[in-house]
Amino acid sequence: MKPIPTFSKNEYHLLKELTKKNINTANSKDLMLLNEELDRGIIVKEFDQFENFIRLNSTVTVEDLTAKRKVSFQIVLPSMANVKENKISVLAPLSIAIIGFRENDQIDWELPAGIKTFKVIAVENELEN
What we know:
CATH class: Alpha Beta
Low-confidence stretches: none
Shape: globular
Helix content: 25-40%
CATH superfamily: Transcription elongation factor, GreA/GreB, C-terminal domain
């Protein structure tokens, strides 16, 4: 069974706005998929500080179970994306595949290279003051 993503109310609205603003870009299929995930997700007022859901600014380690390869990166707004700093856009296919999920979730997702199965190994979120 596919896990259901969870989004904070503020982040849900921010991501919906981003998809609207970028819908005519080259990655419109990915944005449609993000919209589908947002629509089927659970919306919470805010996250408990101890809940390790993947969200904007999360640092994440995921394992591609097909390729047996782990990768770590931070999910950021498109304007902050920088591959050299391991910061990828929330609108990138891999970010869309995992946002809203948490540690130990396993997700099947269609990427440009085909369907991949990812396992979320670790999620780090900065505590908000």
